[in-house]
Design brief:
The chain is α+β, with helices and mostly antiparallel strands. The protein has a single domain, classed as 4-Layer Sandwich (Double-stranded beta-helix), CATH 3.60.130. Helix content is 17%, strand content 22%. The chain is built from seven helices and 17 strands. The strands form four sheets. Strands 1, 2, 3, 4, 5, 6, 7, 15 and 17 form a nine-stranded mixed sheet that branches. It starts with 36 loop residues before the first helix and ends with a strand.
Length: 356
Protein backbone atom coordinates (compact mmCIF):
# COMPACT_ATOMS: atom_id res chain seq x y z
CA UNK A 1 0.00 0.00 0.00
CA UNK A 2 1.35 3.42 -0.90
CA UNK A 3 2.45 5.43 2.14
CA UNK A 4 0.94 8.53 0.57
CA UNK A 5 -2.54 7.05 0.16
CA UNK A 6 -5.23 9.16 1.80
CA UNK A 7 -7.09 7.73 4.76
CA UNK A 8 -10.41 6.14 3.92
CA UNK A 9 -13.36 8.41 4.71
CA UNK A 10 -15.31 7.52 7.84
CA UNK A 11 -18.08 4.99 7.37
CA UNK A 12 -21.34 6.66 8.31
CA UNK A 13 -24.56 4.67 8.59
CA UNK A 14 -27.02 5.19 5.79
CA UNK A 15 -29.72 7.71 6.61
CA UNK A 16 -32.88 6.13 7.98
CA UNK A 17 -36.10 6.26 6.04
CA UNK A 18 -38.52 8.77 7.46
CA UNK A 19 -42.04 7.46 7.05
CA UNK A 20 -45.04 9.72 6.93
CA UNK A 21 -48.72 9.32 6.32
CA UNK A 22 -50.14 10.28 2.92
CA UNK A 23 -50.53 13.89 4.00
CA UNK A 24 -47.19 15.64 4.60
CA UNK A 25 -48.94 17.78 7.18
CA UNK A 26 -49.58 14.82 9.48
CA UNK A 27 -46.87 13.17 11.52
CA UNK A 28 -46.86 9.37 11.73
CA UNK A 29 -46.13 8.22 15.31
CA UNK A 30 -42.85 6.40 15.98
CA UNK A 31 -42.97 2.82 14.76
CA UNK A 32 -41.74 1.38 18.05
CA UNK A 33 -40.84 2.39 21.57
CA UNK A 34 -37.17 3.01 22.23
CA UNK A 35 -36.48 2.03 25.83
CA UNK A 36 -33.01 1.00 26.97
CA UNK A 37 -31.10 1.15 30.20
CA UNK A 38 -29.19 4.15 28.87
CA UNK A 39 -32.42 5.96 27.99
CA UNK A 40 -33.85 5.19 31.41
CA UNK A 41 -30.75 6.61 33.08
CA UNK A 42 -31.06 9.72 30.92
CA UNK A 43 -34.62 10.18 32.17
CA UNK A 44 -33.45 9.85 35.77
CA UNK A 45 -30.63 12.33 35.16
CA UNK A 46 -32.57 14.86 33.09
CA UNK A 47 -33.23 17.18 36.02
CA UNK A 48 -29.68 17.23 37.32
CA UNK A 49 -27.57 18.26 34.32
CA UNK A 50 -24.80 20.71 35.10
CA UNK A 51 -22.00 22.15 32.96
CA UNK A 52 -18.88 19.97 32.77
CA UNK A 53 -16.21 20.58 35.36
CA UNK A 54 -13.16 22.17 33.77
CA UNK A 55 -9.96 20.95 35.41
CA UNK A 56 -7.36 23.40 36.69
CA UNK A 57 -4.91 22.67 33.87
CA UNK A 58 -7.44 23.60 31.20
CA UNK A 59 -6.73 26.56 28.95
CA UNK A 60 -9.36 28.36 26.88
CA UNK A 61 -8.77 29.14 23.24
CA UNK A 62 -7.80 32.84 23.29
CA UNK A 63 -10.49 35.10 21.87
CA UNK A 64 -7.85 37.15 20.12
CA UNK A 65 -6.43 34.17 18.24
CA UNK A 66 -6.12 34.79 14.53
CA UNK A 67 -7.80 32.82 11.78
CA UNK A 68 -6.60 29.19 11.66
CA UNK A 69 -4.57 29.57 14.88
CA UNK A 70 -3.97 26.16 16.48
CA UNK A 71 -3.90 25.44 20.21
CA UNK A 72 -2.89 22.01 21.53
CA UNK A 73 -4.20 20.97 24.94
CA UNK A 74 -2.86 18.04 26.94
CA UNK A 75 -5.46 16.50 29.23
CA UNK A 76 -4.13 14.49 32.17
CA UNK A 77 -1.02 13.39 30.30
CA UNK A 78 -3.06 11.88 27.48
CA UNK A 79 -2.68 12.77 23.77
CA UNK A 80 -3.39 16.37 22.96
CA UNK A 81 -6.71 17.75 21.81
CA UNK A 82 -6.10 20.27 19.05
CA UNK A 83 -8.38 23.30 18.77
CA UNK A 84 -8.09 25.21 15.50
CA UNK A 85 -9.66 28.62 15.06
CA UNK A 86 -11.86 28.91 11.96
CA UNK A 87 -12.63 32.64 12.12
CA UNK A 88 -11.39 35.67 14.05
CA UNK A 89 -14.31 35.64 16.53
CA UNK A 90 -16.42 32.57 15.83
CA UNK A 91 -15.80 28.94 14.92
CA UNK A 92 -13.31 26.31 16.08
CA UNK A 93 -12.46 22.80 14.92
CA UNK A 94 -11.59 20.06 17.41
CA UNK A 95 -9.02 17.64 16.03
CA UNK A 96 -7.84 14.27 17.24
CA UNK A 97 -10.92 13.09 19.14
CA UNK A 98 -13.53 10.36 18.95
CA UNK A 99 -16.64 11.73 20.65
CA UNK A 100 -17.68 8.20 21.65
CA UNK A 101 -14.58 7.86 23.86
CA UNK A 102 -14.29 11.22 25.64
CA UNK A 103 -13.74 11.26 29.39
CA UNK A 104 -15.04 14.18 31.45
CA UNK A 105 -11.77 16.13 31.29
CA UNK A 106 -11.54 15.91 27.49
CA UNK A 107 -15.19 16.82 27.07
CA UNK A 108 -14.63 19.77 29.41
CA UNK A 109 -12.03 21.12 26.97
CA UNK A 110 -14.45 20.81 24.06
CA UNK A 111 -17.16 22.52 26.08
CA UNK A 112 -14.79 25.34 27.00
CA UNK A 113 -13.76 25.79 23.35
CA UNK A 114 -17.45 25.86 22.39
CA UNK A 115 -18.23 28.61 24.91
CA UNK A 116 -15.29 30.58 23.56
CA UNK A 117 -15.89 30.05 19.83
CA UNK A 118 -19.73 29.79 19.75
CA UNK A 119 -19.52 27.16 16.98
CA UNK A 120 -17.50 23.94 17.24
CA UNK A 121 -16.80 21.46 14.44
CA UNK A 122 -15.69 17.89 15.19
CA UNK A 123 -14.81 16.18 11.89
CA UNK A 124 -14.46 12.56 10.88
CA UNK A 125 -16.89 10.95 13.31
CA UNK A 126 -18.48 7.54 12.77
CA UNK A 127 -21.65 7.39 14.84
CA UNK A 128 -24.72 5.31 15.34
CA UNK A 129 -27.83 7.18 16.34
CA UNK A 130 -27.45 6.30 20.04
CA UNK A 131 -23.86 7.62 19.96
CA UNK A 132 -25.06 10.94 18.60
CA UNK A 133 -27.73 11.25 21.28
CA UNK A 134 -25.35 10.30 24.08
CA UNK A 135 -22.80 12.90 23.00
CA UNK A 136 -25.49 15.56 22.52
CA UNK A 137 -26.86 15.00 26.04
CA UNK A 138 -23.49 15.98 27.49
CA UNK A 139 -24.29 19.57 26.45
CA UNK A 140 -27.73 19.73 28.08
CA UNK A 141 -31.28 18.46 27.71
CA UNK A 142 -32.18 17.13 24.26
CA UNK A 143 -35.72 18.22 23.40
CA UNK A 144 -37.90 17.21 20.40
CA UNK A 145 -38.33 19.94 17.81
CA UNK A 146 -41.89 21.31 17.36
CA UNK A 147 -41.90 20.12 13.72
CA UNK A 148 -43.33 16.64 14.29
CA UNK A 149 -43.44 15.78 10.60
CA UNK A 150 -39.63 15.83 10.33
CA UNK A 151 -38.85 13.89 13.51
CA UNK A 152 -37.16 10.51 13.23
CA UNK A 153 -39.94 7.89 13.50
CA UNK A 154 -38.12 5.86 16.17
CA UNK A 155 -36.14 8.62 17.91
CA UNK A 156 -38.42 11.67 18.22
CA UNK A 157 -35.64 13.74 19.83
CA UNK A 158 -33.92 13.71 16.44
CA UNK A 159 -35.00 15.76 13.44
CA UNK A 160 -33.94 14.35 10.07
CA UNK A 161 -33.07 17.18 7.71
CA UNK A 162 -33.16 16.88 3.93
CA UNK A 163 -35.29 13.76 3.42
CA UNK A 164 -38.61 13.52 1.55
CA UNK A 165 -37.96 16.78 -0.29
CA UNK A 166 -39.85 15.62 -3.38
CA UNK A 167 -43.60 15.13 -3.30
CA UNK A 168 -45.54 12.27 -4.89
CA UNK A 169 -45.90 14.40 -8.03
CA UNK A 170 -42.12 14.92 -8.22
CA UNK A 171 -42.31 18.59 -7.22
CA UNK A 172 -39.57 19.94 -4.98
CA UNK A 173 -40.89 20.85 -1.52
CA UNK A 174 -39.15 24.16 -0.86
CA UNK A 175 -40.03 24.12 2.85
CA UNK A 176 -37.79 21.06 3.22
CA UNK A 177 -35.16 21.87 0.58
CA UNK A 178 -34.59 25.43 1.82
CA UNK A 179 -35.19 24.79 5.50
CA UNK A 180 -33.05 27.21 7.47
CA UNK A 181 -32.15 29.24 4.36
CA UNK A 182 -34.96 31.79 4.61
CA UNK A 183 -32.81 34.21 6.60
CA UNK A 184 -30.43 34.66 9.50
CA UNK A 185 -31.94 33.34 12.71
CA UNK A 186 -31.40 31.70 16.08
CA UNK A 187 -33.14 28.43 16.89
CA UNK A 188 -35.90 28.27 19.47
CA UNK A 189 -36.48 31.98 20.12
CA UNK A 190 -40.21 31.18 19.93
CA UNK A 191 -39.94 28.99 23.04
CA UNK A 192 -40.32 30.16 26.63
CA UNK A 193 -37.02 28.37 27.31
CA UNK A 194 -35.07 29.02 24.08
CA UNK A 195 -32.71 26.42 22.70
CA UNK A 196 -29.30 26.53 24.28
CA UNK A 197 -27.69 24.77 21.33
CA UNK A 198 -28.35 22.97 18.08
CA UNK A 199 -26.16 20.09 16.92
CA UNK A 200 -26.02 18.47 13.47
CA UNK A 201 -24.32 15.30 12.25
CA UNK A 202 -23.70 15.01 8.50
CA UNK A 203 -24.87 11.74 6.95
CA UNK A 204 -24.73 12.81 3.30
CA UNK A 205 -23.34 15.94 1.65
CA UNK A 206 -23.81 17.29 -1.89
CA UNK A 207 -21.02 17.70 -4.42
CA UNK A 208 -21.31 21.48 -4.14
CA UNK A 209 -23.20 24.06 -2.11
CA UNK A 210 -25.16 23.29 1.04
CA UNK A 211 -22.93 25.29 3.40
CA UNK A 212 -24.10 26.67 6.75
CA UNK A 213 -23.22 30.26 7.67
CA UNK A 214 -22.71 31.51 11.22
CA UNK A 215 -22.33 34.93 12.81
CA UNK A 216 -21.68 36.15 16.35
CA UNK A 217 -24.33 37.91 18.45
CA UNK A 218 -21.48 39.29 20.56
CA UNK A 219 -20.03 41.01 17.48
CA UNK A 220 -23.49 42.31 16.58
CA UNK A 221 -23.94 43.82 20.04
CA UNK A 222 -20.48 45.38 20.01
CA UNK A 223 -21.23 46.98 16.62
CA UNK A 224 -24.33 48.77 17.93
CA UNK A 225 -23.93 52.52 18.39
CA UNK A 226 -24.24 53.69 21.98
CA UNK A 227 -27.63 55.30 21.31
CA UNK A 228 -29.06 51.91 20.30
CA UNK A 229 -27.50 50.12 23.26
CA UNK A 230 -29.15 52.65 25.54
CA UNK A 231 -32.47 52.44 23.72
CA UNK A 232 -32.50 48.64 23.92
CA UNK A 233 -31.47 48.45 27.57
CA UNK A 234 -34.31 46.65 29.34
CA UNK A 235 -36.36 46.20 26.15
CA UNK A 236 -37.94 42.84 25.39
CA UNK A 237 -38.97 41.34 22.09
CA UNK A 238 -42.13 39.35 21.46
CA UNK A 239 -41.34 36.15 19.54
CA UNK A 240 -43.41 33.37 18.00
CA UNK A 241 -42.95 30.46 15.60
CA UNK A 242 -43.15 31.87 12.08
CA UNK A 243 -42.96 35.49 13.20
CA UNK A 244 -44.73 38.23 11.29
CA UNK A 245 -44.73 36.12 8.10
CA UNK A 246 -46.59 33.25 9.85
CA UNK A 247 -44.16 30.75 8.31
CA UNK A 248 -45.55 27.59 9.90
CA UNK A 249 -45.50 25.12 6.97
CA UNK A 250 -43.36 22.62 8.92
CA UNK A 251 -45.80 22.46 11.83
CA UNK A 252 -48.80 20.17 11.96
CA UNK A 253 -52.08 22.07 11.69
CA UNK A 254 -52.95 21.56 15.35
CA UNK A 255 -49.59 23.07 16.44
CA UNK A 256 -49.78 26.34 14.51
CA UNK A 257 -51.55 28.43 17.14
CA UNK A 258 -48.34 29.40 18.92
CA UNK A 259 -48.40 31.48 22.10
CA UNK A 260 -45.93 34.41 21.84
CA UNK A 261 -43.07 34.59 24.34
CA UNK A 262 -40.90 37.43 25.65
CA UNK A 263 -37.10 37.66 25.67
CA UNK A 264 -34.68 40.54 26.30
CA UNK A 265 -33.19 41.94 23.11
CA UNK A 266 -29.88 42.50 24.87
CA UNK A 267 -29.19 39.17 26.50
CA UNK A 268 -26.36 38.36 28.90
CA UNK A 269 -24.96 34.90 28.25
CA UNK A 270 -25.53 32.82 31.42
CA UNK A 271 -22.12 31.12 31.23
CA UNK A 272 -19.75 33.68 29.71
CA UNK A 273 -21.34 36.86 31.09
CA UNK A 274 -20.98 38.58 27.70
CA UNK A 275 -23.73 40.70 26.16
CA UNK A 276 -25.31 39.66 22.87
CA UNK A 277 -27.90 41.05 20.45
CA UNK A 278 -30.52 38.32 20.89
CA UNK A 279 -32.62 38.91 17.82
CA UNK A 280 -34.36 36.99 15.05
CA UNK A 281 -36.23 38.98 12.37
CA UNK A 282 -38.04 35.82 11.24
CA UNK A 283 -39.53 35.11 14.67
CA UNK A 284 -39.94 38.51 16.30
CA UNK A 285 -43.42 40.03 16.22
CA UNK A 286 -42.62 43.37 17.78
CA UNK A 287 -40.51 45.21 20.31
CA UNK A 288 -42.57 45.59 23.47
CA UNK A 289 -43.43 49.14 24.52
CA UNK A 290 -43.23 50.66 21.03
CA UNK A 291 -46.04 51.38 18.60
CA UNK A 292 -46.14 49.29 15.43
CA UNK A 293 -44.35 51.84 13.26
CA UNK A 294 -41.53 52.38 15.77
CA UNK A 295 -41.22 48.65 16.37
CA UNK A 296 -41.00 47.80 12.66
CA UNK A 297 -38.41 50.53 12.10
CA UNK A 298 -36.29 49.29 15.01
CA UNK A 299 -36.51 45.68 13.81
CA UNK A 300 -35.30 46.77 10.38
CA UNK A 301 -32.44 48.77 11.90
CA UNK A 302 -31.32 45.92 14.14
CA UNK A 303 -31.38 43.49 11.22
CA UNK A 304 -28.68 45.60 9.61
CA UNK A 305 -26.34 45.06 12.57
CA UNK A 306 -26.72 41.28 12.88
CA UNK A 307 -23.94 40.17 10.55
CA UNK A 308 -20.45 41.52 11.14
CA UNK A 309 -17.70 40.29 8.75
CA UNK A 310 -15.12 39.66 11.48
CA UNK A 311 -17.74 37.79 13.50
CA UNK A 312 -18.72 35.33 10.77
CA UNK A 313 -17.78 31.81 9.66
CA UNK A 314 -19.00 29.68 6.73
CA UNK A 315 -18.91 25.90 7.15
CA UNK A 316 -18.53 23.56 4.19
CA UNK A 317 -19.85 20.18 5.27
CA UNK A 318 -17.98 16.88 5.07
CA UNK A 319 -19.57 13.52 5.70
CA UNK A 320 -19.03 12.65 9.37
CA UNK A 321 -18.88 16.26 10.61
CA UNK A 322 -20.55 17.15 13.89
CA UNK A 323 -21.27 20.85 14.31
CA UNK A 324 -22.77 22.42 17.43
CA UNK A 325 -23.63 26.09 17.78
CA UNK A 326 -24.65 28.20 20.75
CA UNK A 327 -28.06 29.77 20.08
CA UNK A 328 -27.53 32.16 23.00
CA UNK A 329 -24.78 34.01 21.15
CA UNK A 330 -24.84 33.12 17.44
CA UNK A 331 -27.00 33.41 14.34
CA UNK A 332 -26.96 31.00 11.44
CA UNK A 333 -28.55 30.23 8.09
CA UNK A 334 -28.33 27.50 5.47
CA UNK A 335 -27.05 28.53 2.06
CA UNK A 336 -29.93 26.66 0.37
CA UNK A 337 -28.02 26.35 -2.88
CA UNK A 338 -27.09 22.70 -3.39
CA UNK A 339 -28.27 20.62 -6.39
CA UNK A 340 -31.80 19.48 -5.43
CA UNK A 341 -31.27 16.04 -6.96
CA UNK A 342 -28.38 15.39 -4.55
CA UNK A 343 -28.63 14.43 -0.89
CA UNK A 344 -27.86 16.77 1.98
CA UNK A 345 -28.98 14.82 5.05
CA UNK A 346 -28.30 15.49 8.73
CA UNK A 347 -29.41 14.30 12.11
CA UNK A 348 -30.29 17.31 14.21
CA UNK A 349 -30.96 17.79 17.93
CA UNK A 350 -32.21 20.78 19.89
CA UNK A 351 -30.59 21.21 23.30
CA UNK A 352 -32.05 23.19 26.21
CA UNK A 353 -30.73 24.62 29.46
CA UNK A 354 -33.41 22.87 31.51
CA UNK A 355 -35.63 19.83 31.22
CA UNK A 356 -39.00 20.52 29.63
Amino acid sequence: MSSGAPAAPPRVPAPPALHRSASRRECQPPSREFVTAAAAETCRARDRWSPPRVIASSRPVPLGAGRRALVSISVGGRPMIKVQRLGPQIGAEIQGVDVKALDDAAFGEIYRAWLDANVVVVPGQELQIEDFLTYSRRFGFVSPHPSKMTRHPDYPEITVLGVNKFGADGALDMAIYRRGAEGWHTDGAYDRDPFKATQLYALAVPSKGGDTLFSSMYAAYEALPQRLKQRLDGRVGVFTYGGRRKATALLNQEDRDWTPVFHPIIRTHPETGRKALYFDPGKVLRIEGLDDQESDALIEELTGYMIQPDGSYRHTWRKGDIVIWDNRCSYHKAAGDYPPEEDRIHWRVSIKERAA
